[in-house]
Structures are given as structure tokens and as C-alpha cells.
From TrEMBL:
PANTHER family: AMINOGLYCOSIDE PHOSPHOTRANSFERASE DOMAIN-CONTAINING PROTEIN, AMINOGLYCOSIDE PHOSPHOTRANSFERASE DOMAIN-CONTAINING PROTEIN-RELATED. Its EC number is 2.7.1.39. Keywords: Amino-acid biosynthesis, ATP-binding, Kinase, Nucleotide-binding, Threonine biosynthesis, Transferase. It comes from Sandaracinobacter neustonicus. Residues 27-258 form the Aminoglycoside phosphotransferase domain. The keyword Amino-acid biosynthesis applies. This is Homoserine kinase. Pathway: Amino-acid biosynthesis; L-threonine biosynthesis; L-threonine from L-aspartate: step 4/5. The gene is thrB.
């Protein structure tokens, strides 16, 4: 349940008075999500999402994320516009938290995507890469190779308590990744977390790309590998769904064809993407944040995906 902070109706009414949004009609906490508190707000004129940023976001980086969303939305992507108040401010304070009112987009996050939906997600990611190329402010990926190395060292043998042998497997894969991680592939602004829960869909149409708070400057093909690791496997499975895997590439390449070097690097990139989610999930699994509401996600499906991409690399 991602409502960590309650907002009294009076405080919300005062907050909305800063905007041209019309008066408050209703506000409901949104159960999905893990990082921030989100509310669905209805006013006389429209629906909005109100996000209150909780401690997992570095507030100093918020202007970069908000400007990126605005850039992509202005480019015509299905990305929610951050809403500015009468004075032009998008980032606000509400009940002691940093907050942002965001355009509401229709659609639902699918929990078991079809191949056609995976294709649409792949195409949407490629559009995001093309539109993000003109967003030139850079943000290094804080969850890249050096983070994986530090995180694996910190977790150490704790990984074996999740599954015997996991620490050695991770250490071995990290050595390969450190030795061969591609540095010269095309790079730019990437989402870096485009899981099905961060894509809103109506049927096979992508109506929303949300949750940009891991976005950064990194390899486009790495972002595709994240999407592949998240969409091309059954929930806990180790073997990819071949139709989904093919559809993701077809969708992506219908918008932005990959180079031969990007394609050749894919088994390595898939290992990197799997490790990234394996390690952040393992951190939460072994040392759950003191905030008991944070949902722990099982790291093991990403250990299976890591093994899959490692076999492709072999
Ligand atoms: N702009 C939006 N339009 C419609 N629904 C949204 C929007 N932003 C977020 N949501 C809803 O809120 C949920 C949680 O948002 P998300 O950004 O994923 O939270 P978290 O960062 O905590 O994971 C989403 O699953 C979706 O249902
Ligand atoms: N997608 C990540 C966790 C990040 O959660 P999100 O709700 O902010 O996308 C994972 O599955 O481990």
C-alpha cells in the first residue's frame, strides 16, 4: 500500500487553490507503487495524480526528473505533464513533504502482458529514446556497474541465505561484466525501470509511461534489456516467452533499429539488467527498510534471468 503520508482534506483544498484546477471533489489513496505516496484527485475540471515524495527519492534530483517528464510529454509521448501552479512552480511542499501534481493518464498496468502488449511497450521505449535524445542534461546511472559491485560486496554471503551458491554466481557474473561491459554503444536518456507496472495500457495501446525516478543517461540497448528482462519471462520463470521476446525487438526496431554492436552486446546487457534488479531486491529482502510498508519483491526470478542471459553469452 503506497500511502505513507495522509493529507487532510483542508490541506489539499488549500494546496489546489494555487492551481487553475477548480475545487476539490474527491481524493483517494492509490494502493499500487512502493516508493512514493500517490493520490487520485478529482476536481471540478479534471483528474490528477498527486505524488508526495518519500525518502527513497533524492529531492535534489527532482527537477531533473520533472523537466524530463515535461520534455517527453511536450514531444507527444504518453508521459504525464507535471502541472504548474499560477506562478509556474511544479515542485511544491504539502504537509511537510515535497509534492507534485501530475496529469492523470487513462489505462491500466497489465500483470500478465500479451506478446502484442510487449511489442507496444518495446515501440514506446524506442520513441522515448528518440524523444529523450534532445534532453541533453545528463544524470549518471546510480544503479550501474559500480553500484552492482558495491552492492554485491556489501551483501556478501547474505546472498547465499536467499539461495545457496548465489553469492559465488553473482561474483562470477560480475567479473565477466566488469571485463566486457560495452562502453561505446549509443547512449542518451533512458527510463531504466520500464516494467509492466510502469506502463499504462488500454488493450494493446500504450496510454502512459510513468515512474521516471530511476531515469538517467545510459546505453539505449541496456534500457531495452531492462524491458526484456521485465516483460519477456513468465512471472517466476527462467525460460523466456519466445513470442514476447521477439515482439519486444520487433516493436523497438520498428521505431529505432539496433546496430549490430547493440545486438551482439544483448546477452551481456541482459545480465546487467538482471543483476541490477536481483541486487536491489536482495538488499530489500535481507534488510527490509524500516518503513514496514515497503513491499519486498522476490530476487530469485532475476537470478534465473541472469542465468538465462549468461547461457546466451556462453
Ligand atoms: N500519471 C498517472 N496517471 C494515472 N495513474 C497513475 C499516474 N501516475 C501513477 N499512477 C498510478 O499510481 C500507481 C503508482 O505510481 P508509481 O509512480 O509507479 O509509484 P511508485 O513510484 O511508488 O512505484 C501506478 O501503478 C498507477 O496506478
Ligand atoms: N521495478 C523494480 C522496483 C522498482 O519499483 P517501482 O514500483 O518504482 O517500479 C523491481 O521490480 O524490482
Amino acid at each position: 500500500m503506497a500511502v505513507y503520508t495522509e493529507v487532510p482534506a483542508e490541506a489539499l483544498e488549500q494546496f489546489l487553490a494555487r492551481y487553475e484546477s477548480g475545487a476539490l471533489l474527491s481524493a483517494k489513496g492509490i494502493a499500487e507503487g512502493v516508493s512514493n505516496s500517490n493520490f487520485l484527485i478529482e476536481t471540478e475540471t479534471a483528474r490528477y495524480i498527486l505524488t508526495l515524495y518519500e525518502k527513497r527519492i533524492d529531492l535534489g534530483e527532482l527537477p531533473w526528473f520533472i523537466a524530463l517528464m515535461e520534455h517527453l510529454a511536450d514531444a507527444g509521448l504518453p508521459v504525464p505533464h507535471p502541472i504548474r501552479d499560477r506562478e509556474g512552480a511544479a515542485i511544491q511542499q504539502l504537509v511537510g513533504k515535497t509534492a507534485c501534481l501530475i496529469q492523470y493518464l487513462p489505462g491500466v498496468s497489465v500483470s500478465v502482458p500479451t506478446a502484442a502488449q510487449a511489442r507496444a511497450a518495446g515501440a514506446a521505449l524506442a520513441r522515448l529514446h528518440l524523444a529523450g535524445a534532445s534532453y541533453t542534461a545528463e544524470r549518471p546511472n546510480a544503479l550501474g556497474l559500480s553500484h552492482w559491485q558495491a552492492s554485491a560486496a556489501e551483501l556478501g554471503a547474505g546472498l547465499d541465505s536467499i539461495e545457496p551458491g548465489l553469492a559465488a554466481f553473482v561474483a562470477e557474473r560480475l567479473e565477466t561484466l566488469a571485463a566486457h561491459w560495452p562502453r561505446n554503444l549509443p547512449r542518451g536518456t533512458v527510463h531504466a525501470d520500464l516494467f509492466p507496472d510502469n506502463v499504462l495500457m488500454l488493450g494493446e495501446t500504450v496510454t502512459g509511461l510513468i515512474d521516471f525516478y530511476f531515469a538517467c543517461t545510459d546505453l539505449y540497448a541496456y534500457d531495452l534489456a531492462v524491458l526484456h528482462a521485465a516483460w519477456a519471462f513468465p512471472k517466476d520463470g527462467c525460460a523466456p516467452l519466445m513470442d514476447h521476446a521477439r515482439a519486444i525487438f520487433e516493436g523497438y526496431e520498428s521505431v529505432r533499429p539496433l546496430s549490430a554492436a547493440e545486438r551482439a552486446a544483448f546477452p551481456l546487457l541482459g545480465q546487467g539488467a538482471s543483476l541490477r534488479f536481483l541486487l536491489t531486491r536482495a538488499q530489500d529482502w535481507l534488510a527490509p527498510p524500516s518503513d514496514a510498508l515497503v513491499q519486498r519483491k522476490d530476487p530469485l526470478p532475476f537470478a534465473r534471468r541472469l542465468a538465462h542471459y549468461a547461457r546466451l553469452d556462453g
